[in-house]
Amino acid sequence: MSNRPTSSPPIGPPGGGDPTKKAMNFGPSLKRLLGRLSPDKPIVILIFALVTASVVLSSIAPKILGNATNLIFDGIVSKQLQPGTTKEQAVEGLRASGQGQLADMVSGMAVVPGTGIDFDAVGKVLMIVLLLFVCASLFSWLQAYLLNIVVQRTVRRLREDVEQKIHRLPLRYFDTHARGDVLSRVTNDIDNVAQSLQQTLSQLVMSVMTVLGILVMMLWISPLLALIAVATVPLSIMVTAFIAKRSQKHFVAQWKSTGGINAQVEEAFSGHELVKVFGRQQEVEERFRKQNEDLYESSFKAQFISGLVMPAVMFLGNLNYVAIAVVGGMRVASGTMTLGDVQAFIQYSRQFTQPLTQIASMTNLLQSGVASAERVFALLDQDEQSEDPKGAKSPTVDKGRVKFENVTFSYKPEQPLIEDLSLTAEPGQMVAIVGPTGAGKTTLVNLILRFYELNSGRITLDGIDIADMTRDDLRSRIGMVLQDAWLFGGTIRENIAYGKPGATDEEIRRAAEMSYVDKFVHSLPEGYDTVIDEEGSNVSAGEKQLITIARAFISQPSILILDEATSSVDTRTELLVQSATAVLRSDRTSFVIAHRLSTIRDANLIVVMEEGRIVEQGSHEALLESRGAYFRLYNSQFVGAEI
Length: 643
Prior knowledge:
Residues 1-24 are annotated as: Disordered. InterPro entries: AAA+_ATPase, ABC1_TM_dom, ABC1_TM_sf, ABC_transporter-like_ATP-bd, ABC_transporter-like_CS, P-loop_NTPase, Type_1_exporter. The chain is α/β, with parallel strands linked by helices. It has three domains: 18-222 and 348-385, ABC transporter type 1, transmembrane domain (ABC transporter transmembrane region fold, Up-down Bundle); 242-336; 402-639, Rossmann fold. Helices cover 61% and strands 9% of the residues. It contains 22 helices and twelve strands. Strand 9, helix 20 (571-584) and strand 10 (589-593) form a beta-alpha-beta unit. It starts with 25 loop residues before the first helix and ends with a helix.
């Protein structure tokens, strides 16, 4: 058994705290997320240029379209006036007949009495407007296409960074974080970031530029109406900020709960056989129900509260629209504005509030994406394992002599584990490590592999401190077979060859023969090409263990580590494995962690550990004669004198 600290419960990563008490740091996280677009900066600049062009063309079009309205309205009014008179004469005639308000309106119009509608001029205006809208749509499509490229590249780089980060993280991180939560950060959260960027980035830029462009056009047409139009903007911003602040903490809780429920499902699914054997379905279902309820509540609150933004902004926009329509109508009647300008302005006012509404409606999606981004950034910001030393050393000989010199190590400073341990394993020796659960046996071999760094002391391999070697160099000299046999989805041939990339069929077959895999492979329909499913359920536990042993054999390591490697095989297979390892151990150092003392009777050196210390070491016979800790362990298994 391992002495590693137990993993956090599957309800979420440890140390996360209560997400409802402290919302994430939205601004810096959003800035950092947008900063990841910088490698595609030239394309981003082009996108902004296309957005600007599209907005400019879309903003000019209503003003020009208003000219068509003026031409039609002016033509209709001019048809009602006396032909052959001037505009001034027509106005005076209206005043003289008591139609002063109509006279004011006509005075502000470009009419030629009696001429009617100039359809040629109207047609030209409409063609110009059509061309403007077509070009604006084309630019908008092109910027959306380029944005898709930028977003997908950014997310691809983010996935690559996370993948590389995972390989640089120390084993301690995975020991203290639920696997389902880590998987959720790598998959669900990154997918959510991609979706949020795709759906909000372009629209946000377009909306902001549209607001600015339309604001300029409204000021050009009528500063008074523009003032009315923007009067509701500060109120809209205040409403949006007020609602967003209260919904953000629920988005953080939502994605934290998503990670927790993934961890719960992954754990329950991986151990579903044990759940059924021990009749714990009801407990698992209750835990899932609670996790699911937490996710439901946080998701409902996040979406409901943030969903209030859009109707609130729309309500303010409608009030604004009514005010503009009333004031604009009065100004047309007074002759201070043309009908076309009022029409254009009303269209602008709708276009002005629409992007504000869109921005408001996207706040929930943006908040959700940034919440996911922060979870991904939290993974990327984790402390990494120490870098390999510059000018790394490598043993000039490859014999496998391992020496522990006054080694001290603990997972937590307040809980000492291994203290001042010294041990020498000579080449070709089989060193068996035994002791009760929690004694530090697996920790000992993890230190050889540099999965953890020492507190003090050193470990040497063929005279070289392993801290002075690169991890790749060190681990390439070590073959390891774990207590839990792990196979990858693929053929038996590929699983064996995993220990030596590019291995020939002859090398694979020889490793299989040495580990007695060859004996059962021929009974399978496809032989070495039999595909092992993801769970390895189409081969027995013992056969899986033999395949993992073959995988270690093919790598021809200087050091062989067997962590309860024979725990899943029957007695006959155990004898075969022992014979195979005896051949492999020739001129190689081997460490065998064993609870079944029958597997290590022929070990050159048996090390007995208790509470992180070596309390005895020697041969099987010598340790029995000393009648110490090993004698008690032996009797508990074979004599039954002590338990």
